[in-house]
Amino acid sequence: MKNIRNMDVEWGYTGDRGPEHWHTLCDWFSQGAKYPYQSPVNLSKEATMSEPESRAITFCYKTEEFTEKEFKNTFHFVPPNTESYVIFDEEKYYLTDIHFHTPSEHTFDGEHTPVEFHLVHMNNTGENLVVGCLFTFTQKENKFSENQGAFIWKTETHQQWFDPSVFLPEKKSHFHYLGSLTTPPTKGPVHWFVFDTVQEMDQAFYERIHEGMLPFNNRPTQAMNGRKIYFSE
């Protein structure tokens, strides 16, 4: 295997370059796969521990500019100025990317939802924290609908302006566990916070960003390997 980087290695979700083969494609992917707590996982309230209040996550999001990009087999909203952040364990993690997987990567009691959005954060030492938001689709008007004004699109320059809180549910109950990135090099540790509320997303909004994307891009759920899953109301 050659010691080459993620962006230089072709990988996907089927065949010889699918998830079960990622660790064979290069040394970097192989090293990431050795981390024992891989993501995504199946989540169930029956197999969780209560999260101490001292481990709460605080969202400090604001309306900011995003640029749309297509790479790593999906669509991304990338904020050039990283003005939004979360606070966890007295550490700031800045929002660096929003992308989606279809169907969902995490499952609730073994069940997928149609789509899962990942809000990816990084602190000043390069450690990741990811927030997962799961959705079903609706034809009814909701916060993602064009006439609600949550998103300002500048199509010709591939720019948007919005508050990333639009992806978060009103009720903030969530699972928290230690895992990995779900795309190569699947390195960890990564703090995962996955909301247990399955929200509705305007089908038209999803179709706008899904056009030309893979029909599915979800990594299968991974073994727990004895790790603890926490739940916070």
Structure description:
With 233 residues, the protein is mainly β. The protein has helices at 27-33, 203-210; strands spanning 42-43, 49-50, 57-60, 64-71, 74-78, 85-88, 91-101, 107-108, 115-122, 128-138, 152-154, 159-162, 174-179, 190-195, 199-202, 229-232. Strands 2, 3, 4, 5, 6, 7, 9, 10, 11, 12, 13, 14, 15 and 16 form a 14-stranded mixed beta sheet that branches. It has a two-stranded parallel ribbon with strand order 1-8. The chain is globular. The N and C termini lie far apart (45 Å). The mean pLDDT is 93.
Give the tags.
233 residues; mainly beta; globular
Cα-atom radius of gyration: 17 Å
Q: What is the element string, with H for helices and E for strands?
A: HEEEEEEEEEEEEEEEHE
Helix content: under 10%
Q: What is the helix tally?
A: 2
Short recap of the structure:
The protein contains two helices and 16 strands. It is mostly beta strands.
Lay out the secondary structure:
Elements: H1 27-33, E1 42-43, E2 49-50, E3 57-60, E4 64-71, E5 74-78, E6 85-88, E7 91-101, E8 107-108, E9 115-122, E10 128-138, E11 152-154, E12 159-162, E13 174-179, E14 190-195, E15 199-202, H2 203-210, E16 229-232
Parallel strand pairs: 1-8, 2-16, 10-14, 10-15
Antiparallel strand pairs: 3-6, 4-5, 4-12, 5-7, 6-7, 7-9, 9-10, 11-12, 13-14, 13-16
